UniProtKB/TrEMBL annotation, chain A:
GO cellular component: plasma membrane
SMART domains from the UniProt entry: HATPase_c
Gene Ontology molecular functions: phosphorelay sensor kinase activity
Entry keyword annotation includes Nucleotide-binding: no
PROSITE patterns in alphabetical order: HIS_KIN
Keywords, ordered alphabetically: Membrane, Transmembrane, Transmembrane helix
Top-level taxon: Bacteria
Name of the featured protein: Histidine kinase domain-containing protein
Membrane-spanning parts: 73-92, 98-119, 131-155, 175-200, 212-232, 263-282, 288-310
PANTHER family the UniProt entry points to: SENSOR PROTEIN KDPD
Domain Histidine kinase: 340-533
InterPro entries: HATPase_C_sf, HATPase_dom, His_kinase_dom, Histidine_kinase_KdpD
Keyword Repressor annotated: no
UniProtKB/TrEMBL annotation, chain B:
Domain HTH luxR-type: 136-198
UniProt cross-references to Gene3D superfamilies, sorted A to Z: 3.40.50.2300, Winged helix-like DNA-binding domain superfamily/Winged helix DNA-binding domain (1.10.10.10)
Organism of derivation: Sphingomonas aerolata
Entry-linked Pfam families: GerE, Response_reg
Cited PANTHER family: DNA-BINDING TRANSCRIPTIONAL ACTIVATOR DEVR_DOSR
Residues in Response regulatory domain copies: 12-127
Protein name stated in the entry: Two-component system response regulator DctR/two-component system response regulator FixJ
Record GO biological process: phosphorelay signal transduction system; regulation of DNA-templated transcription
A single MF term (Gene Ontology): DNA binding
Keyword Cell membrane set for record: no
Source organism, top-level taxon: Bacteria
Length: 536, 198
């Protein structure tokens, strides 16, 4: 298990400071304003009384922005939407009811931000498969529209005259329209936007050619979806309405089988068939019913896909760890074996070397052929003896008892071992001068390995600078590895295992490893060991 | 100091190793280099007969069955403090290397496969050291208790008069003791006495 992140320290000042957008966010917000305005206009085709639209892609753009840039932009997003709607003439400051309009515009943005923050917060602490990516995004995409509708409920109930909706039937219809429109907008628009952002940040090396298995999957999905659409069309033709069940089952099947990309593609196909119908002059009730069916298909398809992806990811994490454990176990056995082999060899080799040398000495004057053979045996036995001694020094080191190690020498070893990798990653490892009297007690190779792992993690995650320092703190010796982390906190392959090994080693030495993320983005791994002699 | 092979007083050296072949090979090697070496498989057996036939030097393995090399060294020193001990091992560790020299009075700590030159020079050194120890012991063994006291003070650099003051004797008596000491140890002067005491 990777080290748990420490809970962020919350204070009013810090929160207020964080919600102010940085300069780097401005292009995003400007792009968002344009996209929001365009998406808002495009949605008008599916409008109706009491709700703006039954398909609201602007909500998808909003969620995509909040998800990729973080919920800290909530207030900025809210302000952007207010500005856009003011320019569009929906909010006219000073006119009667303009505050209600502004409230109606600001509320969804705020709710979306809160939902994204909550989902991320809960997912980071979750032990279940709901916390495994991309499940949190799926949850946020479904929860945010529902939450935004819930937030609108008090206004529609207690001030119906403000929203122009009256009566229970109209209220329910209005809210249903709202939630259906947002759900469709979010689930159809947010995933592709997020894929584009992700692909832009982590440029894929090359588009790989589809394999035979993928082609077979594609064929299977096409057959399933085609059959479902055919069944629905047939049922509609013979006057049984437009049943959603076949498409629902097909989309769920595709999502579970092939993940969320395939699920989303299936959703888009279904939506592309249904939406042109509903943009015409259908009665509101029929349109609402169709969009509700579509929304349930979309939700089921996307969640099923997300779930399948999360399962696949958890499974691959698990098998990677299994392989590593297996590898570590094999290495351990191999080392024990080689130490034993060296010992077993050195005993008879001693005899052999002594006797070979003697044979060589007494045959110097003998037949040249015999002398030559004896000399060769002697030379080879001597060479083998040297080899065994050297091997033992290299591999059998840890049969040595733990000893007192100057920390400065340990850190020197670590920097020497990590220099090449740091240079390749164009990272400077800064080592503060270390008190030459600072000593720890332990096995040199293991402790060096632990610090090397922490430094390597820092090198992989940092933005060009890693600070390595050591000091004494009461009866502990503390080694700190600090790096500043850029915003993206995607887990890289292999991360976590190094920290795991480091922690196991340090705990075996009676110490601890902690990782703290400071407010300024600095990540600090602290390795603390008991000072020798402190406990007596 | 290497003794010629044909000399009758070849130094007795014991080789203790639970690997019979290695013990025999080392013993034969030492025999070829002028020692009267003998291999022993079991340190306990050697201890039981050691008092009757003490050696000048013992080459012993550290990892052995019931009694390890260090335990064996302690017990053999109780019988004979003047024997030189050389350790050898197939499991070398820094801690053992330090212990073997500091705590168990070993002359050297040899890693298997053995470095022959180093083994031979360690044994030669051990034999020489042991011979010197034995001769000192032999020569000072004849001293009486009072002569021993005078000897100890003299070699610390005290004059006859000072020794007389410290022991409460007359300078004349000290003079007599000193003459007896020189006669018994076969030395001819204070310088040789001091050399003997080292």
């Amino acid at each position: 298990m990777p080290l748990p992140p420490s809970p962020p320290r919350l204070s009013i000042g810090a929160v207020a400071g964080k919600t102010v957008p940085r300069l780097a966010d401005l292009p995003w917000l400007i792009g968002y304003a344009a996209a929001f305005a365009a998406a808002h206009q495009a949605a008008a085709g599916w409008g109706g009384q009491g709700f703006y639209s039954l398909l609201y892609p602007a909500a998808g753009v909003r969620l995509a922005l909040l998800w990729s840039r973080g919920p800290r932009l909530t207030l900025a997003v809210m302000a952007t939407e207010l500005i856009v709607q003011t320019i569009a003439g929906i909010i006219v400051p000073g006119q009667a009811g303009w505050l209600t309009a502004a409230n109606g515009v600001a509320r969804p943005a705020l709710t979306y931000g809160i939902v994204v923050w909550l989902v991320r917060h809960v997912a980071a602490r979750s032990q279940s498969s709901l916390g495994v990516a991309p499940m949190p995004l799926g949850l946020a995409a479904v929860t945010a529209p529902v939450a935004a509708t819930m937030a609108a409920l008090p206004w529609t109930l207690f001030s119906p005259e403000l929203t122009g909706v009256s009566g229970l039937r109209q209220t329910v219809a209005s809210l249903t329209g709202f939630v259906v429109g947002d759900l469709l907008g979010v689930l159809l628009i947010a995933p592709p936007l997020l894929w584009v952002v992700h692909a832009w940040q982590y440029r894929p090396r090359a588009l790989h050619r589809p394999t035979l298995r993928q082609l077979a999957g594609l064929a299977e999905a096409a057959v399933v979806l085609g059959a479902a659409i055919a069944a629905s069309t047939l049922l509609a033709e013979i006057g049984l309405g437009v049943p959603a069940a076949p498409a629902l089952l097909a989309v769920a099947w595709i999502g579970l089988r092939f993940g969320r990309t395939a699920g989303w593609c299936a959703i888009v196909i279904v939506a592309a068939i249904v939406l042109p119908f509903t943009a015409t002059d259908l009665p509101v009730a029929e349109r609402l019913a169709l969009h509700m069916s579509l929304a349930s298909i979309v939700v089921v398809g996307y969640l099923a896909g997300s779930f399948a992806d999360a399962q696949a990811r958890a499974q691959s994490d698990l098998s990677r760890r299994d392989r590593m454990l297996f590898q570590a176990e094999r290495l351990k056995t191999l080392r024990a074996m080689s130490v034993a082999v060296i010992h077993e060899i050195s005993q008879p080799l001693s005899t052999l070397a002594i006797e070979a040398k003697h044979l060589h000495e007494i045959t110097v004057a003998a037949d040249p052929d015999i002398a030559q053979t004896a000399a060769l045996i002697d030379r080879k036995a001597a060479a083998l003896s040297t080899l065994v001694r050297r091997l033992r020094r290299f591999g059998g080191r840890s049969v040595d008892e733990p000893s007192a190690l100057p920390l400065s020498a340990l850190v020197e070893t670590v920097t020497a071992l990590t220099r090449a990798e740091a240079r390749a990653a164009r990272v400077v490892v800064e080592v503060s001068p270390i008190d030459p009297d600072l000593v720890v007690f332990g096995q040199e190779i293991e402790l060096a390995q632990a610090v090397v792992n922490l430094v390597r993690n820092a090198v992989q995650a940092c933005d060009g600078r890693v600070a390595l320092s050591a000091h004494q703190n009461d009866d502990r010796v503390v080694v700190m590895v600090a790096n500043r982390c850029p915003d993206r906190r995607e887990a890289r392959p292999g991360m976590g295992v190094g920290a795991l090994v480091a922690r196991a080693i340090v705990e075996a030495h009676g110490g601890t490893v902690e990782r703290v993320t400071h407010a300024d983005g600095t990540i600090c791994a602290t390795l603390s060991l008991p000072r020798p002699g402190a406990e007596t | 100091m290497t003794l010629p092979a044909n000399q009758p007083d070849r130094a007795a050296v014991y080789v203790v190793d639970d690997d019979h072949d290695l013990g025999a090979a080392v013993a034969r090697l030492l025999c070829r280099h002028g020692h009267a070496a003998e291999p022993f498989l079991d340190p306990v057996m050697l201890l039981s007969v050691y008092a009757e036939a003490p050696a000048l030097c013992i080459v012993t393995d550290i990892m052995m069955g019931d009694l390890d090399g260090f335990g064996f060294a302690d017990r053999v020193r109780m019988i004979d403090p003047a024997v030189a001990i050389v350790f050898m091992t197939a499991w070398p560790t820094t801690a053992n290397a330090v212990d073997s020299v500091r705590r168990y009075g070993g002359l050297d700590y040899l890693e298997k496969p053995l470095d022959e030159t180093r083994l031979l020079s360690a044994v030669d050194e051990g034999v020489a050291w042991s011979r010197r120890q034995r001769s000192i012991r032999a020569r000072t063994a004849a001293l009486s208790a009072r002569e021993r006291q005078v000897f100890d003070l003299l070699v610390q650099g005290h004059s006859n008069k000072a020794v007389a003051d410290i022991l409460g004797l007359s300078p004349k008596t000290v003079e007599d003791h000193r003459a007896a000491i020189v006669a018994k140890t076969g030395t001819n002067g204070l310088a040789q006495l001091i050399a003997l005491a080292r």
